[in-house]
Queue: 3 jobs
Job 1
Amino acid sequence: MAYRVLGRAGPPQPRRARRLLFAFTLSLSCTYLCYSLLCCCDDLGQSRLLGAPRCLRGPSAGGQKLLQKSRPCDLPGPTPSEPSAPGAPAAAVPAPRLSGSNHSGSPKLGTKRLPQALIVGVKKGGTRAVLEFIRVHPDVRALGTEPHFFDRNYGRGLDWYRSLMPRTLESQITLEKTPSYFVTQEAPRRIFNMSRDTKLIVVVRNPVTRAISDYTQTLSKKPDIPTFEGLSFRNRTLGVVDVSWNAIRIGMYVLHLESWLRYFPLAQIHFVSGERLITDPAGEMGRVQDFLGIKRFITDKHFYFNKTKGFPCLKKTESSLLPRCLGKSKGRTHVQIDPEVIDQLREFYRPYNIKFYETVGQDFRWE
């Protein structure tokens, strides 16, 4: 009887080793193939079965031929809710697609943002002209209508306000105009609460001329209102001006400015001369562009003087077939006012004007 000696088994025969290696490789390849087929991507790069993006990542040599017909999908980057693991390389996140059209009819680009700059005043000072002129600039997108958010519609909330804004790119400025903000007591605090970095533009004009223009506009809508002289004075003989009349009170610029300076430094407020806007529109708009921190794109080549209206208009551009002037309500002939009344009002405004010049460091030469 032969006894088997217990001990260390010798190495397997070469043929047997090759068979074991082949079986192991085949098993691994089949497993990988099954997993890949379960997770193959559809046309949108998402798994039909698992509901999440899956891709074929470098199959082994044994399964390469079987998998070569399988379609790989793009590798997705990490989403904001699923950050990549520490130490892993960051993957690029595709930019969102936007559809629709902007004011020029081209595809919409950008995002609706709260305005970084506001034209806050003053009524009948030339705010519409500044708005229309600055909209020519490619780095500015402005709301065409007056939303009156910070005076009449504040209760609607910032989300409502933002929804009104045009879409802008990161490199563009969002701007809106409502000239009644300047004389609204609550407006400075509300704007500050939105953003303390908001840039403010105030278009001012000789307060006497501004008051007459204001009255002329009101008269066109309400022909039965009292005369300009009757509304301007409590006692004309004594020269007592009625400061409760809004057309007079708006022109007391320095009083309204005090409210703004409680929240914003003077460097954040730019004052445009309504008079120079007519005689030198390119110069005034150049200073506006400097204040906004954008290049001087709007120059003399954009303007021509309309003798009928008495103020500058925009020339024809590549995107416009006709020159663009302000509407019929702009440049209307003012009502005739007794020169003595004008002199009395000039004397009334003189101390307010001087204080305004000193505060803003600019002489508008209204005397």
Note: The two ends are 136 Å apart (CA to CA).
Job 2
Amino acid sequence: MGEQPIFTTRAHVFQIDPNTKKNWMPASKQAVTVSYFYDVTRNSYRIISVDGAKVIINSTITPNMTFTKTSQKFGQWADSRANTVFGLGFSSEQQLTKFAEKFQEVKEAAKIAKDKTQEKIETSSNHSQECGRETPSSTQASSVNGTDDEKASHAGPADTHLKSENDKLKIALTQSAANVKKWEIELQTLRESNARLTTALQESAASVEQWRRQFSICRDENDRLRTKIDELEEQCSEINREKEKNTQLKRRIEELEAELREKETELKDLRKQSEIIPQLMSECEYVSEKLEAAERDNQNLEDKVRSLKTDIEESKYRQRHLKVELKSFLEVLDGKIDDLHDFRRGLSKLGTDN
């Protein structure tokens, strides 16, 4: 009743395999609630997670613990008391960051609580030691001073001081006795909690063993189903191949039927053409006669073309000869023109001199 939740989130819980110390074993089938609890009575912090009626995490935070992020959405910490390593898988990196920050805060608070408890223990121990040292002094003072009547008659400042110190020691002893009772109650509570945790761990171990058997059965069933699926896939592939073959055969039959229809159409056309074969034969003879006449005309035309080519070659030759003669004539003419220009310049010079 003294524990209160201070932070709650949801995550997939894992535990390290105790045999291999490497592989992770799922402690929950789905995401479960993971909470930080603060125990006011014991001044301690715990991480608790329950899946249905089974406690899967019950880890008391100590200053020596460290929460490590192993990926963007997974973190882990080691619990030496439980002799295991817990792992949490979150749905987002933000949830992992918040959980890690809270772990660090709780770790610091646990360290402060431990320091305060240590100080209380040391203070109580010092009071007990002082009580042990000063009690003999009181006894010695009582024996030295005599009886109560003598103390009353011979009371002085020293006796008054010893009496006040004795009263303080009695108060300290009373407080120590109360603290001892309180610690006994806490020890009994811890024992009861340890017994409950032991029972829960035994139940968890039984559940884990049962889960392992179920997992083995499911794995065998899964292997059998995979084999059956492979066989069915092979049968499906054979059926698909047969379907493809049937589709190809249907397509081939359709093509053959189309070719058959084309052949029938061609056959009808040929029959119609066979009816006009005599007319075609007469037309063919007429065309053959025209073709022979055309060939004769073509032969005559070829002879004419050859003669024209010969005339063209002779004409080209004559043109080339005329070009050569014209070129030589032009050269002679250019010489004569030059001579006339020289003669004219001479006449012009002679007229100027006269």
Note: The longest helix spans residues 157-275.
Job 3
Amino acid sequence: MAEIALAFFVADEVDAIEIPHVLYGEWHDEHRLRRSVPKVQQFVEEVVPQYSPSDFKSHFRLSRGHVEDVMTTIGPFYWNRQHSKVPLQNSVLACLWTLSNQESYRGVADRFNITKSTVCLHLHEFCSLVTTYLSHHISWPTGQALHNSELGFRAAGFPNTVCAVDGCHIPIVKPHCENPVAYINRKQFYSVVLTGFCDSKRRFCHVNVGHPGSWHDARAFRLSAVGRLLDEDPQSLVPEGMHIIGDSAYPLLPQLMRPYRDNGHLTARQRRFNQKLNVARVVIEHTFGLLKTKFRRLKCLYMKNIANISTTVTACCILHNMCLEEGEAIEVDEQVEAADNRAPHPQNQDAVLHRNQICDLF
């Protein structure tokens, strides 16, 4: 009977549960040692070169030229993990594919003819190299870049604006850390906060990643490099008479404008001010939508190390800016999160005066 069951199993005619447990365990242990897992052969060498420019960008998000630039930049620092002898091009394309899709590590490994562990190790190495050697693609607007951003926000109805700020939750699995409960946000799933600043062209100017999902946006903002500089030396970031715009989750500062709190007694000008600010501020929500649409791995990161999570999200923001340099139109994911207004902020009288002066212009 055992021999018959085993014959049927090999012929795929019966499920493993139909074979006695002991017999299946002994056969499985022996079979696992000698079986070879089928992989896709020559995908990078034969299939990828046949992609049209648009198909290549659809799969890897960057153009061939930008991929070449990435390899040229990180190549001298590339560390071939585990001595796997994976060529740099294969590693970079596998990592871009992993970030751009929600395909399992097993699927990526089969496609690129490598192992799951190799995919994981090379992904962390790739993101680390991107954040280290390509970080110049995220920069605070100054000079002509500042002028162009201000013109864009002025066209949207809110003048003298440097950039917009908002917070975004990146879903993760339960992290390995001292207090994983802190990463459960108000919607009851694990996440880290991405605080992003963008110009009027949906380009990230600064990002801060890794704070627990339970944190209020204002707290994450305060501990970002921009938040600290606005407290210590605001003129180094925001020229006199200009400002950053954010939603009602952020504090009102002379250099940071937020809407009037709607208590049911707003004047017509105050309502007009709120409307114009919100129309101009929606650019940061669109930026997050673009980011998650293009790098779909961010819709849920199956990583447990907070440092790796932060590096991966930052790398995706850098690659997002590189995509925009190509002038590519991208479909926006319109799903955005509502502002969290749980914590009222103390009034800054200089900021109140500055906001009222702007309001009087509308």
Note: The chain is about 45% helix and 10% strand.
